Input
Amino acid sequence: MSSLLAIYRSPSYSPLQHLSNDIAILDAAVAHLVARGWDASRLSESEVESGRLPVAELYLNMAQGPRASELLTPLELDGAVVVNAPSSVLHCHRHRLVRALAGTRIPFPRTVIVPTQGPPPRPALLEEIAGGRETVWIKRGDVHAERPEDVISATVAGVPDALRAFAARGLPWAAIQRHVGGPILKFYAVADGRFFRWYAADAGPSGARPQVNEQKLEELAFEAAETLGLDIFGGDVAVPDPSAPVLIDINDWPSFAPYRDEAARAIADYIHSKVESKRGLP
Output
């Protein structure tokens, strides 16, 4: 029987209600794979960090911290099927994400990674990042937001105080990002296109959806995922113009909470097909 190892995300990377939702989507995907004949084992991210990593044919990787990703990297380099691959998870860490998207065709707001301690960024740089607006976004510079205060809006004049508040919480780096106007959309997807859903962040999955060129929205999401190497992903897009969506964030293996049942089946089918392709099966 084929073996898989499901690696569950550390609670520190699944704030508030996301913890149960993250567990639920991985549980559901595993259940579909077990129904296909896979033998499943489960491990926490902290167990991976402690050096425990049983051998398996397939690794379902929801770990998000740098230590776990570093320990999983040899599996990826050896050709094991790891979804998402640890390299793609690390690419989603904000300081790496900014570098990975730089120079690509992917619309992404002007963003600068800065230390939270020491002299604040020069006023001229802050004005350039702001692009004529009075406020900018300040986000923790490593992993995704763990708490509401990890992503804040600040005036250009208030940036130094905001950085000091980040430093006081032990966060060494922050991303200063230009604000993009327009409605915010949330999307969820699987790399081969068999699953793609989106909705307006303020209205929710059952609410009204703003005008957007859906083809361009989908192309933006999948091009970003391909650039980062993601298989299972989600993100946020701003729509200053219906024909010009702008990526503002992307993350590895979100909870898919509004679409869990259909997403879990699509994820399991995709992963099963990926393994069969590696085996050379039609």
